[in-house]
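Reference record
================
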Amino acid sequence: MHKLLFLRSTARTLALGIIAGVALALVAGTTSATPIISGLQKTGTEYPIGTAGGQDSYWEVYAFPTAYTGPLTPGYQAWVFTGGSPPGNVPTRWYPGIGNGGSDNVGANGARWIGLQQDNANALFPGNFTPPRSDYSVIYRTTFQASTTGIASFALLTAADNGISFFVGGTVDNANAYMPTMTGVQIGSESIRLGFLEWVTGDAPVDAGSNYLYAVVRDRFQIDGTNPNIGNYGQTGFLVAAVPEPSSFVLAALGGGVMAIGAIRRRLKRSA
């Protein structure tokens, strides 16, 4: 009887020790470990597959080239394309299809293409121009949360027409009138895959609390295939089909603690 009481007392002590250890690990994880990224949203997932698009609540059209003098003004929510054709809506080559495991303008994980105008993928500079002419870029932004200040890891599954680069923080650099960019830290390198999804990965410093992620989308000037004396920008848009998820270390730690306590209980039953 005394042995059983001793074992039970020891088990309680061990269980409390495990719980305390897990708690300390969680505290340490939030103060010194790699920041946990949360709240970062994919593009267009508010609008289920098969429904009409609308404005994306999370991604903002943030900055235009200073050379642009058209009717649009940055500072509005990006548009989620409904899908379909003709090219003025969503170009066929953007469709995920066989290459990307989706259909009807919906990519992996339900992400959808977004851009500058409602169901209109036309370039910011429409029409034909005499070459040579610069590419141009448009900057989009979205917010996310970081658990602590430090260096965070990012993995973004993306596609764009024509190229996309991601930055954390910084301000707009307008040194090039056609190609604004960001002064923040770039994640990986530019992805130029058009309608094919590609991972962009890298690390960047973040602050505890709210942060901005910027997507710099580059639209190429292309000379007409039948007339070398003219060219155009075609269409523009992008999608983000996967973003960093909150770290699983909390669940793993708790799970390990529960398993250890369960093992102690099983030993007690066998001893009894």
